[in-house]
Amino acid sequence: MSLSKITAKAQDLRTAFEATGAQAVECAVLQPAATLLDLYGEDIRTRAYVTYDPVAGEVMLRPDFTVPVVQMHMAEGAEPARYTYAGKVFRRQEEHPERASEYVQVGYEVFDRSDPDAADAEVFALFFNTLAPYGLRAVTGDIGILMAAVEGLGLSGRRRAALQRHIWRPRRFRALLERFAGQAQVPPSRAALLAAVDPMAGAGPLIGMRSQMEISQRIEALREDAQEPALSGELVALVEALLKVSESCPYALERLRDIAVDLPAISPAVERFSRRCDALEARGVDVGALGFEASYGRSSMEYYDGFVFGFVEPFRPDWPVVASGGRYDALTRQLGQGREIPAVGGVIRPGLLCELEAAT
């Protein structure tokens, strides 16, 4: 597909978003690496293009627009605000070499604290209506429900933080849950370390960046963790049941309310899901035909902390999502230097829309 056609489609989408009242904004292609590393950790290096500028230091080719748009709004934006943008993003595709590492995105972002549920519905309905001619399958989820479940497990702060950090890494999350429940065998090396009177005796010279004090503190933290009571099997089963919820929205809501009877910590998040369904219905979305997957977004949407959604081409399983988005309140808090505001948005890949148009 020619870049000129993709650019024209992107401009059409951005113009349509501007017509709803969004302000068009631009973001620099080179972004400070430090900000992205603080948000995502060193893992971002496996997905982004990193280079060095003699003045700015370490920088990355823009992996998305959301982070710089949030920074811009938190520094100088008025409230409420709606933004739209169009331009290239750059992502390494080592796991999917058949996918483009440089492609165009068009986005729409809402910063509005008056009614977050209505804002969720606004963004989803805008994308739903915009993409209706393309025959895509829509799916929704809610990371906030799983986050609330973790907070309600009665674990120590350290263990809760570990699970929250790995919500977006399903295998690691599952492994931690099993370890905290005593269902996984302690590796012999760790058992020997914890049993040693002086684990540092005979350790040899230090190698790496950690000091002896940091290593000792880490060992002590592991010992404290080993003394914690095991998470009950009933709570593990409830989390597993939650993660398996995959129904149309009304049936998913019913199932989640059943789980909330035994895991009441999720009740506020579940009722927010209910209000969002009402707001979507008010905007003409057939919620009865809309799918909900409790695990949706856990592998690719790291900064979202609530409602998430995606639009996929059902006959092209090899494609990435054609459009995706969600709520990222915590990101505004992280980048707001003491300020925060509820925020939700999404992005569309116009190149994939052009391919669908060419195929019809």
From TrEMBL:
Give a GO molecular function annotation for the protein: histidine-tRNA ligase activity
A cellular component term (GO) from this record? Answer: cytoplasm
Locate the Aminoacyl-transfer RNA synthetases class-II family profile domain: which residues?
A: 13-350
Cite the entry's keywords alphabetically.
Answer: Glycosyltransferase, Transferase
Per its UniProt entry, which superkingdom is the organism in?
Answer: Bacteria
- The residues forming the signal peptide are none
Q: At which positions is L-histidine bound? A: 64-66, 91, 105, 109, 298, 303-304
**PROSITE patterns, A to Z:** AA_TRNA_LIGASE_II
Spans traversing the lipid bilayer? none
Record keyword Glycosyltransferase present: yes
Query: Does the record carry Transferase as a key word?
Result: yes
- What does the entry give for GO biological process? histidyl-tRNA aminoacylation
Subunit info? Answer: Homodimer.
PANTHER family, per the entry: HISTIDINE--TRNA LIGASE, MITOCHONDRIAL-RELATED, HISTIDYL-TRNA SYNTHETASE
Q: What is this protein called?
A: Histidine--tRNA ligase
Please tell me the species this chain comes from: Pseudoponticoccus marisrubri
User: Taxonomically, what lineage is the organism?
Assistant: Bacteria, Pseudomonadati, Pseudomonadota, Alphaproteobacteria, Rhodobacterales
